[in-house]
Amino acid sequence: MTNHIALFEPLMPANTGNIARTCAGTDTALHLIKPLGFSTDDAHLKRAGLDYWDKVDITYHDNLPAFMAAIPANDELFLVSKFAQKTYVDPDYTNADHDYWFLFGKETTGLPEPFMRQHPDQAIRIPQDDRHIRALNLSNSAAIVIYEVMRQQQFNHLEQTHWYPNDKLK
Length: 170
Description:
By secondary structure, this protein is α/β, with parallel strands linked by helices. The protein has five helices and seven strands, in the order E-H-E-H-E-H-E-E-E-H-E-H. The mean pLDDT is 90.
């Protein structure tokens, strides 16, 4: 079972770099749906992703239909949107027979409304107080969702790091 994070037309290199780092740390595939609002050679992207960029399994898709065509029929796709009815903790992400895909919208406008209307049962949200903010940061949202998925999957394939109080930090 592989987990996938997909970004629809991301605009901010720092968000994409941070998400790439999260993908590297969780062995999650990253999918970028064009057009991108930056070059993947951009210094800001490399700085945000540090030296993890080459450790991420990245696939580029020319557009949303091309991305959708790349998802195998037996896999599960979730659309992450603040307009969803279900929360991100509601689904069961433990079926080892298929992969899980999480599609996040553009930082400024989210996912296209017509697309969302075609797939309402696949939408999940992270609860937030809309009185104070429009939306959570994209990279924070991706981390929240993927770590819930990993928690349900018993953090499968992730090494445990041990820190002992007598160790000196370097």
